[in-house]
């Protein structure tokens, strides 16, 4: 806490309020407005929280101007090159990289919590076969609170930790089960002899009739995508998890709320929307028309995968994923014309003043779908992939929130624009 203050003055009322400044280890300082209304009678107004810090956090740092992303201080570029998703999940949850013993214990615990309750299979059978996997995932994760009564006491740190482990461990199993149900294949049980991502791919694609030849390139590519999607400070879905968590709701309900928020096309649903947009554009020669349409406010069309609330520079994750695209497609000997459309679209947008002036760059969702497609992940499951990875961030923030003495129930105020007081009129007199 700094001892610096800023003064708010209102000449009309001779108001002068000294407001404390709050500074962190990195990033812009903030004005603590906790006492603003009591001292001045004013609220602040900030739809979409464009300039509002909702909490202190030490999990992830983003510098939007410089395109910097740190998980617990480690640059995303280094973690992408040298770490694994499960090690990043440990780092996000615990604040430090594990040593070999710690990682082995963590991996063993995750591996032995991957099974889902058999009753959940009946749950899935209640859905129509073509239900969107995000609907099935959201409902299934919310239902976990009905199966795990031993991790519902939010005051018990060990129950909170175990719930976090269960969520990281079971998300891939349940995600794969929604896919298998939707294509009418038998659900595959998690194989404990496989590592986290390979185990997921096995549950997704292994069929009883023949052994699965899993490409190590596919597992490595998906592991990298999971690292890049693991956390992103106070994004919409993480803020949702924190808001639900601030009421004392159980972690399964919190993460289910996060999944629901992630589903939106303005957020995690963008990766699915990007692929549909690229398919609609169809050919590089149609890119100019798409760019013009995205600039026309009346079209209601936006370039999905472009723009970001925080990054006003390249999203560092997009840069890594773009490089990955070429390598993964080459390694898998896949050629995808949509990659050519994406690259043409990126070049056209980055040369257009509308996008340059608004600092609209490709974000994490712009290229990821091309890799998911090359890995034979169906488009409807792209946001499910995002949810599997982001579970590591959601539980890290949820645990942090429960250890934060400043945590209070989240309850924003409003600017009321409705009717002023008026008397009821009997129906016969209206
Ligand atoms: C994610 O927050 C996170 O960290 C999210 C995320 C994470 O890891 O958790 O990074 C993941 O959600 C990435 C974003 C995925 N969404 C999309 O790709 C959808 C397309 N992009 C947008 O809808 C938009 O850019 C947002 C939602 C990402 C950001 O919206 P903002 O910050 O509220 O910006 P805005 O809507 O106010 O736009 C500012 C201007 C507007 O024009 P003007 O009113 O100034 O004339 O830019 C325009 C917008 O019309 N604009 C776009 C555009 N995005 C913004 N115009 C065309 N195409 C776009 N994609």
Description:
The chain has 430 residues and is mainly alpha-helical. It contains 18 helices and six strands. The strands form two sheets. It has a three-stranded antiparallel sheet with strand order 1-2-3. Strand 1 and strand 2 form a beta hairpin. Helix 9 runs antiparallel to helix 14, helix 11 packs across helix 18 and helix 14 packs parallel to helix 17. The longest helix is centred in the middle third of the chain and has 26 residues. The mean pLDDT is 95. S-citryldethia Coenzyme A (SDX) binds next to helix 17.
Helix content: 40-55%
Q: In sequence order, what are the helices and strands, one letter per element? A: EEEHEEEHHHHHHHHHHHHHHHHH
Number of helical regions: 18
Q: For the report, how would you describe the main beta sheet?
A: 3 strands, antiparallel
List the helices and strands and how they pair.
Blueprint (H helix, E strand, L loop, with lengths): L4 E6 L4 E8 L7 E2 L4 H5 L19 E4 L4 E4 L2 E2 H7 L2 H10 L5 H12 L7 H7 L7 H11 L13 H26 L13 H10 L10 H14 L6 H10 L5 H12 L7 H12 L5 H9 L20 H16 L5 H14 L2 H5 L6 H11 L7 H21 L28
Antiparallel strand pairs: 1-2, 2-3, 4-5, 5-6
Helix pairs in contact: 3-9, 3-18, 6-7, 6-11, 7-8, 7-18, 9-14, 9-17, 9-18, 10-11, 10-18, 11-18, 12-17, 13-15, 14-17
Bound molecules: s-citryldethia Coenzyme A.
